[in-house]
Design goal:
Blueprint: E1 2-13, E2 26-36, H1 39-44, H2 53-66, H3 72-84, E3 89-98, E4 110-117
Antiparallel strand pairs: 1-2, 2-3, 3-4
Helix pairs in contact: 2-3
Length: 119
């Protein structure tokens, strides 16, 4: 199987458990790894034969900026649901990074990675 990778999608969103996280937007980064059969697209050179990563990226951006989740685990699950709505996607791995987590230590980010497959 083949893969389409979307890496480093950054958007502000309101996600978190703490009260201050539920009222102010903070930065998130999303990476997607879509398992897709790209044989037809490789032969035809036609966008209709593949997953349009531009459209998917806009949808993911809308989820991050327009929905509100307590946990980044839920945010990742919502993104996976949308990716799997395209019947060409056999499996998706979603990584959601919280770039400024409210923790008392200095770190680059916290993240979750989930993998979901078509049943």
């Amino acid at each position: 199987m083949d893969h389409i990778l979307v890496a480093g999608l950054r958007e502000l969103g309101v996600h978190g458990v703490l009260p201050e996280e539920q009222t102010r937007a903070q930065p998130f980064e999303v990476d997607l790894d879509l398992t897709v059969d790209l044989t037809a697209a490789g032969a035809s050179d036609a966008l209709d034969d593949t997953v349009d990563y531009g459209t998917l990226s806009e949808t993911v951006r809308g989820i991050v900026s327009g929905e509100s989740c307590l946990l980044i685990e839920r945010l990742a699950a919502r993104i996976a649901e949308v990716a799997l709505a395209d019947p060409r996607v056999a499996e998706v791995s979603v990584t959601v990074k919280k770039l400024r987590p409210p923790v008392p230590v200095q770190l680059d980010h916290v993240a979750v990675r989930i993998t979901r497959a078509r049943s």
